[in-house]
Amino acid sequence: MASIIGPHIHKRALLKHTVALNAMNDGDGPNSYFQNSSYQLLHRRFRLLNRPELISRHSIHHSCHQAKTENILAQNPEFHVFFNDVVTNDFNTLFASLPRDRLYRAAAVPGDFHGRLLPESSLHFGYSSWSLQWLTEVPRAVADRDSPAWNRGRVYCTRERKDVCDAYLNQFGDEVASFLEARAVEMVSGGLMAIVVPGEPEFWNPETEFTIPSEINLFGSCLMDMAKKGRFSESKVDSFNFPFYLPTPQQLKVILERSQSFSIERMEVLNNPGKYTLPSVDARAVVYRAVLGRLLTDHFGSEIMDELFELYTKKIAASPIFQNPDNDKTTTILVVLKRKTD
């Protein structure tokens, strides 16, 4: 389970890492998300929270309602971090991974983060990292054979299918709005929330570049190849779509600006650091199996998993575009929000 933790003063802080539909492989086995996420590996390598010199004075300043930073630091503040995930998450693996000499108190808050999790006005700082892209469900129009957005033969949205992309974007916007409404009740006036979301650039060249959605759609190609070989029916592929959406920076900005409770204090588009942590084609296949394995198994069955990922690995290896991490144009969007005063 990947985690990046945010500090607070005296009351509560909240880490957001929720996965829709229990998508990721749990536990700490060889195919688990815990062992294979490139971002999890980076976090375990640096252990940011146990370095107090990295705690931002700017964040502490705002979290304490404009109190003087020097006085706050002199008070030896206490940090409480609440980890959030779906109720089926393996919290034992999470807590076993935390350093014993950590400088914060840790607890779990299971539940869907699109609804309320904490008491009213109890949250000073929230951090959502690589979570909001997950949807609670696939857009209904995408799975409806009578809808112009029916995504036949595909498992995710592509540029040439605008109706499908619009359905995903609308679902994403509605769920981000629900997330913000719940946090607005829980957060104190002037509290801060940092959001990190994977995204796509406004423009990129699919002939020479790729993004995470490009790799995801490659799974659709693999599944259709297997269906044509009789491993399962094509209708089985037609009825499956991945429940996440990677927005462009402008799309995310428009959604966030609709909120009546939060203002955008800062927004940056960052290069994707994770793309250099996967040294081989096999390593990338292992990571995707850890992240997507449960969704695929639930729909297609476990017996096809080895064959599917072997085919995926071969297709990645055969493409010079996918082999070069510099061609990966997936972005990381960082947004800092501030709770408005009621």
Automatic annotation (TrEMBL):
<keyword id="KW-0479">Metal-binding</keyword>
<keyword id="KW-0489">Methyltransferase</keyword>
<keyword id="KW-0808">Transferase</keyword>
<keyword id="KW-0460">Magnesium</keyword>
<dbReference type="InterPro" id="IPR005299">
    <property type="entry name" value="MeTrfase_7"/>
</dbReference>
<dbReference type="Pfam" id="PF03492">
    <property type="entry name" value="Methyltransf_7"/>
</dbReference>
<dbReference type="InterPro" id="IPR042086">
    <property type="entry name" value="MeTrfase_capping"/>
</dbReference>
<dbReference type="InterPro" id="IPR029063">
    <property type="entry name" value="SAM-dependent_MTases_sf"/>
</dbReference>
<comment type="similarity">
    <text>Belongs to the methyltransferase superfamily. Type-7 methyltransferase family.</text>
</comment>
<protein>
    <recommendedName>
        <fullName>S-adenosylmethionine-dependent methyltransferase</fullName>
    </recommendedName>
</protein>
